[in-house]
Write a structure and sequence with these properties.
By secondary structure, this protein is of the alpha+beta class. The protein folds into four domains: about 70 residues, no CATH class; about 240 residues, Ribosomal Protein S5, domain 2 (2-Layer Sandwich), CATH 3.30.230; about 110 residues, 2-Layer Sandwich (Alpha-Beta Plaits); about 110 residues, Up-down Bundle (de novo design (two linked rop proteins)). It is built from 18 helices and 18 strands. The strands form four sheets. It has a seven-stranded mixed beta sheet, with helices on both faces. Strand 9 and strand 10 form a beta hairpin. Helix 8 runs parallel beside helix 9, helix 8 crosses helix 13 and helix 13 runs antiparallel to helix 15. The radius of gyration is 24 Å and the shape is globular. It starts with a strand and ends in a 7-residue tail after the last strand.
């Protein structure tokens, strides 16, 4: 197996030697696969890929295959900010990065060695179903977490039992600096204390576990100095915590000599790491942060293993845009977890165990899976319909009807009622499902939560079907109009919002208001995104209606709130799919 680097095909007049492997894309573009050790490369390192050259000396792929091909492999090491950001964002980002590096030198007295970067995400469809192991469709955004880093080797490292981490934030007045002396073999995190550095610690702890397994008991972590800058709004539903945790894990890996960090390993590491700060994270946020490529949404699946596939939106008339609007209702799932986010994870897990016990009439528990609490609704699905040859859409429809027949109590189920069905005592139930991430509830609304998960999983499949087979929708209106296609996608997003509001109970009046205002002003589809209970909303808006939607929000929503100038400027974002995690090696103390 030889490792090669993908880059645009060299011209025949190029003085550089031509590679002996070529990849031809079916859309007519040709690319050279350059040996990784070739000193002539002037590459965008995000396009690493592995190919068996003995079996495939020449390879032809459709565009979708090409995109999957370049997503495999390691986190890219960017040579330029152009490798990370779109052209329209470069000026602002260059200024921001320059300020970050200047402040790093001011704080620590020397230049940073590298910057670890991971973006936030907006979820297009597939809300609150990742931790039930159903597929989702997010995309990365420009807003991100940056960690400027330098390493210091303690002269007494061979005898010392600790290493040092100094961490500060560009918003030092809001997030005070800290210094930690951390034992080589343990990183302690108190998930009950909501401290901003917990996200750094969680990524640190997860990365060190991987490094110790690789290098053995003799591994000694390097001391680090870190300056953090984040533009993903906290509590905004755009995964600021996942961006910070992922960037932290990546920074620790790179600082300790891992120059080629595997994307899948980083994603799985970040998923587990964030749970250390008290959240039953599913995996969508971290997957979008790591795997995304510019210009594409991401179809993320969790069963049987974590996979990510880029998805393009076809050209439409009118052109479609995604607009993100903040409600300015803080939705910190780490603080409200016991009655909001973590409670929903528990309810979905209990529902899976209940359905299995009720349907099978067996004392055998539901087989464990990779869900946050060890069982999931997808796990029940696989057990109950594992031998079915029916299309997945039909299977989900069957599960929806089964849910309605099995869960008849709209008011919810008590611990005693659930325990009696799943063959546990109440103390056993509490220990199994509510001890790691405590929740507060007298009744668990298993019917409503399960209906949301199965119907949302079905909506994701329908959304993907429209994107992958758009012909019948794009041509339905005659001429150049794609109104039918646009409305089909929008209708599915609107259905998600209804389900989030009525069945999953994770919306709020402010989010509902933003969605209604947008639809009246021209949005095809409007829904909350992220955990909910506040935060952000996402809207599928025709390009020629974006200004009208923004004006309606300003008049009917934002003008009625006491917002700062900075908040008003950040309230609305017209988003394009962005790139995923990357490392930028600093040369000469700047980004030029």
């Amino acid at each position: 197996m030889a490792t090669y680097l993908l880059r645009p095909q060299l011209s025949t007049s190029s003085p550089r030697s031509q590679p002996n492997v070529r990849l031809k894309i079916c859309d007519g573009e040709c690319y050279d696969l350059v040996p990784l050790y070739d000193p002539t490369d002037d590459f965008q390192a995000r396009k690493f890929a592995a190919i068996d050259t003995d079996s495939y000396p020449t390879r032809t792929l459709p565009a979708s295959g090409y995109l999957s091909f370049i997503m495999a492999g390691v986190v890219p090491v960017a040579k330029s900010l152009k490798d990370i950001y779109t052209e329209d964002a470069l000026a602002a980002q260059t200024k921001r990065w320059d300020n970050l590096l200047k402040q790093f030198k001011s704080n620590y007295g020397h230049d940073a060695q590298f910057v670890s970067r991971s973006p936030g995400r907006v979820n297009i469809i597939g809300e609150h179903i990742d931790y039930s192991l159903y597929s989702v469709l997010p995309m990365a955004i420009t807003a991100d977490a940056l960690l400027a880093v330098s390493t210091k080797i303690d002269e007494s490292a061979s005898t010392s039992t600790t290493f040092k981490v100094r961490v500060s934030n560009v918003q030092g007045d809001k997030f005070p600096a800290h210094e930690f002396d951390i034992p080589f073999d343990a990183v302690e995190i108190d998930s009950k204390v909501h401290e901003w550095t917990n996200y750094l610690k969680s990524g640190l702890r997860g990365a060190l576990e991987i490094l110790r397994k690789k290098h053995g008991d003799g591994f000694r972590p390097k001391s680090m100095e870190v300056l953090m800058d984040g533009t993903v709004p906290a509590g905004g539903g755009l995964s600021s915590s996942a961006a910070f945790t992922t960037a932290s894990a990546l920074a620790v890996m790179f600082a300790n000599g891992e120059q080629s960090v595997d994307k899948t390993q980083l994603t799985e590491l970040a998923i587990v790491s964030e749970r250390a700060v008290g959240v039953n994270s599913g995996g969508m946020d971290q997957s979008a942060s790591v795997f995304s490529i510019r210009g594409s949404a991401l179809y993320v699946s969790f069963n049987p293993t974590l996979t990510a596939k880029p998805v393009h939106f076809p050209k439409t008339n009118p052109e479609l845009t995604f607009v993100i609007a903040q409600s300015f209702v803080a939705a910190d799932k780490h603080v409200t977890g016991p009655v909001c986010y973590n409670l929903r994870v528990v309810e979905c897990s209990l529902a899976a165990a209940y359905l299995h016990a009720a349907i099978n009439k067996s004392k055998d528990p539901l087989p464990s899976d990779s869900g946050p609490l060890g069982v999931s609704l997808h796990g029940f699905h696989s057990k109950y319909l594992g031998d079915s040859t029916a299309p997945l859409e039909e299977q989900l429809s069957e599960l929806i009807e089964l849910t309605k027949k099995t869960f008849t109590k709209e008011e919810g189920y008590t611990r005693e009622e659930i325990a009696s069905v799943i063959n546990m005592t109440v103390p056993e139930l509490n220990e199994r499902f509510t001890s790691t991430f405590p929740v507060r509830a007298e009744h668990f609304k298993l019917r409503q939560r399960t209906l949301h998960v199965f119907t949302e999983a079905l909506r994701v499949l329908k959304f993907m079907k429209v994107l992958e087979h758009p012909e019948s929708y794009l041509n339905a209106d005659g001429g150049n109009s794609t109104e039918t296609f646009n409305r089909k996608l929008g209708d599915l997003m609107n259905e998600t919002q209804t389900s989030c509001r009525e069945d999953f109970d994770c919306s709020c009046p402010e989010l509902d208001e933003l969605c209604e205002i947008a639809k009246k002003a021209g949005s095809y589809g409007s829904r909350l995104t992220g955990a909910g209970w506040g935060g952000c909303s996402v809207h599928l808006v025709p390009a020629d209606k974006v200004d009208a939607v923004k004006e309606a929000w300003e008049k009917e929503y934002y003008s009625k709130k006491d917002l700062s100038k900075e908040q008003k400027e950040a309230a609305i974002v017209v988003s394009k799919p962005g790139s995923g995690s990357a490392v930028f090696v600093v040369e000469g103390g700047n980004v030029a």
